[in-house]
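S.,

Sequence below, as promised.
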Amino acid sequence: MSKPKLSKPAQKSQKAPSLLARLFGAEQPAATKPAQKYIGPAKTDSRDPRLLLAQQIRSIRAKLNPQILRLAEKVAKKGPPTTDQDRATLAIELFLAQKDDGGDFAAKLKAKLDARKRSSH
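The prediction came back faster than expected:
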């Protein structure tokens, strides 16, 4: 029958010398470096996802018609249209915003609608 193997005693970590020992010149144990966490590759402008997203948003906004952006912001503030008249007004505003005639068609349409309103009253 063999003898059971005893585990090796755990190595005791060296305690820091007391204050008096440090005052009288006791050797300090070597300081260990704290473990560094891996933070991945350094973020450059080309790899930072926030900067990439902001750049994509700017490029999309630059392609959009500013009038349509204003209408979208108006809808976002007020919420979606609830009545049929609000929906129709929004549809007409979007249609007119897509015209590239400098607002001529919108002005003519508004003048005709105003004339129609005046004549019906």
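The chain has five helices and no strands.

Coffee later?
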